């Protein structure tokens, strides 16, 4: 990786759980619970609203020295001085992003099958790859086909770039995911649901601790 980043437990915000009034506190509680990366993601909000929320996430992640990634929007990431951006297969190409931001800016790429992982290997421009959805997920209106555990394990095996597993991961299946030995696990609902991110994160962290014993 071009920039050192602990991908272990990667939290992604969700507009169903967050707004300008609660996002700072919610992200802070997740960080205090043990989250190692925070991504701001919103799909249906106006740019000005996203900007205001992202500024709050930037503030709290800087306070605790946790890397801050913005989903999809390079313009938003740059405007709030985020540490990086995460893009999908149909977003701005990574070689274009690299030309704009250089090598120190963190760039993550979503992958949904092994062919996309192989292409990312050949490009060698991403700092990490999100791979999934490993399980069915409700956080996207039109999710990609479920990859399953077997393909996640294969992706980790063939990838030259750190893999972050994503999609429907929670306390009931995270141990199965950890068996594939990804660099990290990205979680939305299982962290921020029930307005208890600190408690939810601690529950997930127990699985990491038990797995590493």
Automatic annotation (TrEMBL):
Comment on bound cofactor: Binds 1 Mg(2+) ion per subunit.
Documented EC number(s): 2.5.1.3
Residue sites binding 4-amino-2-methyl-5-(diphosphooxymethyl)pyrimidine per the record: 39-43, 71, 110, 140
Positions contributing to Mg(2+) binding: 72, 91
Gene3D superfamilies: Aldolase class I
Keyword tags: Magnesium, Metal-binding, Thiamine biosynthesis, Transferase
Similarity section: Belongs to the thiamine-phosphate synthase family.
Protein name listed in UniProt: Thiamine-phosphate synthase
